[in-house]
Design brief:
This protein is an all-alpha fold. The chain contains 11 helices and no strands. It is globular, with a radius of gyration of 16 Å.
Length: about 200
């Protein structure tokens, strides 16, 4: 185990509510399982999973204030769907408060809410682990996504993004531009595979 993990667990347990802390542990364990499956670095997966929601202790308006204070660029669509901003601010916190310098870990934290086009393996692992971790129980397709995640990361990305867009459209929620771009990217990968 990475020697810093115990320290970060203690800090997060002090700062997050108990259910958010348990979720963060579950995401880190799920990320490690996916890392084992895809031959990715276990320590990076564990660290990114553990810290992915480190900014979740703040409400939307407080995160907006903190992003502005630290001069993090805020897009209009992020302000319309501020729930995604904990990822952006979380990446900042991971770097500036927790001392994380690894760009792959910071990227995985940054993109775990919206996704983006051309995600790295760790980006996909954290995005997917956040969706499928064992404590999640609300999405109707969880069992299928949990199985699919261990056979095809790109197809899992497509299916989760597709489900997210359908859900947000049905609720009349604002959809972040990056989520749309990520969906189109993974949709194109899927279509190219079908042609091959």
């Amino acid at each position: 185990m990475n020697e810093e993990i115990g320290f970060f667990r203690q800090k997060l347990q002090e700062r997050l509510n108990p259910m958010r802390y348990e979720h963060s542990l579950s995401v880190s364990f799920t990320a490690m399982a996916l890392a084992m499956r895809y031959g990715y670095d276990l320590d990076k997966a564990e660290m990114a999973g553990l810290l992915h929601d480190c900014a979740k202790r703040f409400g939307d308006s407080e995160i907006i204030q903190k992003c502005r204070k630290h001069k993090l660029n805020l897009e209009d669509d992020e302000l319309k769907a501020p729930a995604v901003l904990h990822a952006k601010y979380g990446a900042w916190l991971a770097e500036h408060r927790y001392g994380i310098t690894d760009p792959e870990i910071l990227s995985a934290i940054r993109w775990h809410t919206t996704g983006k086009a051309n995600m790295s393996v760790l980006d996909k692992i954290i995005y997917i682990a956040d969706y499928i971790e064992p404590r999640r129980n609300k999405a109707g397709d969880l069992e299928e996504m949990r199985q699919l995640a261990f056979s095809d990361l790109d197809e899992t990305m497509f299916r989760i993004l597709q489900g997210t867009l359908i859900y947000l459209q049905s609720k009349g929620g604002s959809i972040d531009r990056m989520t749309k771009e990520a969906y189109e990217y993974y949709k194109n990968i899927r279509e190219e595979r079908k042609k091959a």
